Structure formats: structure tokens, C-alpha cells
Amino acid sequence: MSLHIKSATSKKANNVLITFPKDGVDQSVIRKYSGLGYDAEHTGASRELISFLHPENKKRIHILGLGEPKEASKMYTLFRSFVFQQRSKSNMILDVIGDHLSDDELKNAVIGLTMGMINHGIYKTNGNKYVEPEINLVVPKSRQSLAEDFAKVVDTQMSVMNLVDQPSNIKFPAFIGQHALKSGKKYGYNVKVLEAAELKKMGMDALLAVGQGSNHPPVFIIMEYKPKGSKSKSPKLGLVGKGISFDSGGLSIKPAANMGYMKSDMAGAGAVIGALELAARLKLDIHLVGIVPSAENSVDAKSLRPGDVISSYSGKSIEVIDTDAEGRLVLADGLSYIKKHFDPEYIIDLATLTGSCIATLGNAAAGLFTHSDEMAHDLTVAGDEVNERVWRLPLWEDYLADMQSDIADIKNLSGKPVAGAITAAKFLEFFISEHQKWAHLDIAGMAFTDSEFAKMRTATAYGVRLLLQYMQKLIS
Predict the structure, then answer these.
(1) Exactly one of 254, 437, 457, 473 is catalytic; which is it?
(2) Is residue 305 flagged as an active site residue?
(3) Does the active-site annotation cover 141?
(4) Which of 113, 216, 220, 465 could form a disulfide with 172 if both were Cys (CB 3.0 to 4.6 A apart)?
(5) Residue 306 CB burial class (10 angstroms; 0-12, 13-18, ≥19)
(6) What are the structural domains of the chain?
(7) Distance of alpha carbon 24 from its chain centroid, rounded?
């Protein structure tokens, strides 16, 4: 599955797509590629589609509206929706006219057209349900390298989506580690996967405690990308991603309804792996490190119990109130490790952490927690630009009192039915050693959602483009 980037239209094409923003319809472009003096009313409004058959060459001409400038960050969904709706047509060969598109419109075209060809039925015994279309994006030779860079972005996004969508009887912690190793080897960044015996020697007690009820032992993935010739010792940016390959809730077991979707509880890990991969593929001038603590939270006689007190890589003790608040436990070890061994200038963790964040923000934005106004501003702007929005929530000290334990340094759940996303962030803050430029992203409502493109919830690769956009801001 791929998008072909070409400098000329194809003689074999039987469909042509021409797109315009609102009030930006260019009749000369339509005449050039349709051969008709087309003058029908078309405003370029979002999703406005006019299709007609060319009377001579029998090509079907489609004119699609891209909407207003304020809708630009969502434009890729229009290209994706068009392909998704049209791809069932047999032997479809589509030329997409791109020589009149701006750079942002071209980026959205590459991403949307490619995503429109996603096939979720990878385990169906009868294979694809549609004939995969051939799609050619026609741009001048001078802009092909730019389009190819955008193609790398969406290729990585789709790799992350496929990883998150994998069923949990295949996607064990070791599987996630192998995925990272293959990516690092292919694209040129360093990856090390530490296994249970080594983790025990290191004192990764919180990570090991979460995974002790599973037959599939935890792993700890360390990734580093350093630009060629870079002499920096401390990374500019450190990323930590929650890698729970499946979350039953442990002994604090989740309700059966929708538990199958808990295969997505490693979406933060996917975003971090994707960010490292893209930095390497695009050769970004940024020293980057990524950490993924990965475990399976299962129910077993050996499982962590509510009321247990465990240690952590930091040496701090944790009273476990709820075994379903396990993501913050593995992140505690990941954050402590990255601070101690790399001490990046900026640290961001991403996790499908709380239902509380979904209750607060729905599926419109991730929760952002940071004491750094600089990071809050830059992440918010980056998110707005790529339709991966974030919304800042407080980290006031008032909430820390709810996490105090009588017998340990901290407990993993406040026990109150309010401010769950905030108290979870306060728990993580406890393990970051007062790092001044740390941000926590609760992506629970964004990483795995319903859409028009599938019958069930599927992965979105949320965080990949957000992190890329943020990295590009750091080095601009």
C-alpha cells in the first residue's frame, strides 16, 4: 500500500481529483485537467463534492472542497474520507492534482490519501474487502522531495496505528520491544531492550510489580537518536511512553464491557517509538531519547494486590490502592530512569492514563499538565497546527495531599471520585525530581476512538505528529 508521487498525470487514470479551499476555486485548473469549460457552482466548502463524467475520455472528474483556513488542521480527513468512500470501486486509478496546492495542503493530501487506503482486516481469512486503488499525486518535480518527506510521516503514523491495533495475544511486551528494535535498525537510531532478569538487578520494582501476574514478562525499551556529527552529551528532548500491552485492571479488574479495547493501552509507547523513528527518517537536528516501560497487567495468583506496598526505581515506596492504576507505576520507573541517566532539557510523557481525562475533555483533546508555561504554549500551538490538540489542566499543590499514604511515600490512587487525571499527574510529578521542563500528556480520549473509517474503535497514532511538530519548533 503506497501513494505514488509523480510529475505528470497517468494515461491509465480513470478518475481525477481536484481540490480547492473555500472561495478559492480556480476554473483554469479545472479546465486544464478536465478539458471542459466547467462553470458549475462550487464554493470549496468543506466536503462539498461534485463529480461528473468527461464526455470524451470517460474519466470521472471529482472536485472536492477543502473548507476554510480555520479548518486547515483537519484537512487530511477530507482526503482520507474521499478515498475511503471511493476505494470500493473496482480498478480505480486516481490522479490527484497537487501542483496548485500550498505546502500545508500538500501535506494534508499525502497524509489523508494514504490513510484512506488503510485495511483493518489483516486477520480476515478472505483477505481484503476491496480492490486497493492506485493513487498518483501529481506535483512538479521541484516539490516531490517535500511530498516524499510527508509520505515518511504518514508511513510512520500507519506503522504506529498497526502496532496499537494488534491484538494482545500477539502484542506482548517483547513484541513491542522487537518492533522498536526493527525500526531502529531500519532507520538508524539506537535501541536496547532490557528483560526481566536485568530489570530485577536494576531495581525496576514498580514495572516488575505490574507485570508479575503475567506469563509474558516486562521489558524496558531505551531508544536514542543523535544527529550525525552531534557532540551533545545531554539530549534536548526525552520522551517516556506507557507500554501496557493489555490492561485487565489486575485484581481491581475492569468491567467486561469494552475490556477488549485495552489492547490500546500502549498507545503512548507507540507515539514515542514513532517520534524516534521520524526524527531518524527526517534527519532532524535534535538529540532525542525515548523510554518505554512495557508490561501486561493480568489477573493471577501472583498479581499485585490492592494494599501492597512496593518499591520503585527511584527508591521511593508506593502503596497500591488500585491495581488498575498501573500505568502510572510503570511511568514512575521510566521517568526516574530518564532523569537519572539522561537528564534531557525537556521531558514529555504520554499515556492512556485515566478515564477522568476522557470525562473532562472527551475525544477533542489530550490533557496537558506542566509547570512550564513555555512547554504549555509550544505544545498547544503544535497540537492546534496538526489537529492533535491539548488542553492545559492544573498541577496545584492542593491535589498532592490526596496522594499521601500513611505507610508509604505515596499511594497510586487518591480514592476520591474527583480530579482523577490531575492526581495521576501529581503522582508522576513525584518521580521526576522537580524537573522544571516536564510535561505529562494524558491521551486516553485521543489514541483509540470511533470514526467513520471502521466499525469499531481503532488507533489514531495520536501524538506522532504532535511530537514531530514540537520537535521542529525546538530546533527552529
Answers:
(1) 254
(2) no
(3) no
(4) 216
(5) middle
(6) 4-139 (3.40.220.10), 153-474 (3.40.630.10)
(7) 32
